[in-house]
């Protein structure tokens, strides 16, 4: 794995990278990329893209996903996001854009690449950072969730006034220790077609996020 992380994250996670679980995780993931070079996503250079695009001091919002899209060409290191050339959008992403349209009156974007959010301070973090083609959750329970928890602990210690957007029970469980007194925690069901009509549509998380950021004297996100 390419461990050339953005400086603030590299320093904050330095000790984490030396722990036995992470050394085992790294060994396993590297073997997967070696043995299945075209079937492990995202590209190896993009595993930590969410962190690299969003230094700790710039984090204003955290969106916590599950694992990368297990379809070739989709995953590029940011949860829910796809590469610019991907059409149609994945169904969960389509539902996210539908809620933005309903909540803020913004039309669907031309592409589903959400780097534009990351560059504004939205940390788009999956709880599991790699996956095998066609096998959702194939890299769960190999150590990534422990690493994700360490990232959230760093944010809990070093930041406040951050909006945590938690869609689905898994995200809510992983981020269960977030300090809700010093941050805004927004929860709903997952935006997947299986659950979106049970509380995701109408949650207004995007307008609520911007209202809170303005209250904290921070620039709102251009969704």
Question: What does this protein structure show overall?
Answer:
The chain has helices at 7-12, 20-35, 49-52, 91-104, 115-118, 144-158, 169-174, 205-215, and strands at 40-41, 61-65, 122-126, 131-132, 163-167, 184-188. The chain has 223 residues and is of the alpha/beta class. The chain has a four-stranded parallel sheet. A two-stranded antiparallel sheet has the order 1-4. Helix 7 (169-174) links the parallel strand 5 and strand 6 (184-188). The protein is globular. The two termini are 31 Å apart.
Q: Can I get a quick summary?
A:
The protein has 223 residues and is α/β, with parallel strands linked by helices. Helix content is 34%, strand content 11%. The strands form 2 sheets. It has a 4-stranded parallel sheet. Strands 1-4 form a two-stranded antiparallel sheet.
Query: How large is the radius of gyration?
Result: 17 Å
Mean pLDDT: 96
Number of strands: 6
Structural class: alpha/beta
* % residues in beta strands: 5-15%
Counting DSSP H or I runs of 4 or more residues, the number of helices is 8
Q: How do the helices and strands line up, and which of them pair or pack?
A:
Layout (H helix, E strand, L loop, with lengths): L6 H6 L7 H16 L4 E2 L7 H4 L8 E5 L25 H14 L10 H4 L3 E5 L4 E2 L11 H15 L4 E5 L1 H6 L9 E5 L16 H11 L8
Parallel strand pairs: 2-3, 2-5, 5-6
Antiparallel strand pairs: 1-4
List its salient traits.
223 residues, four-stranded parallel sheet, 8 helices, 6 strands, 34% helix, 11% strand
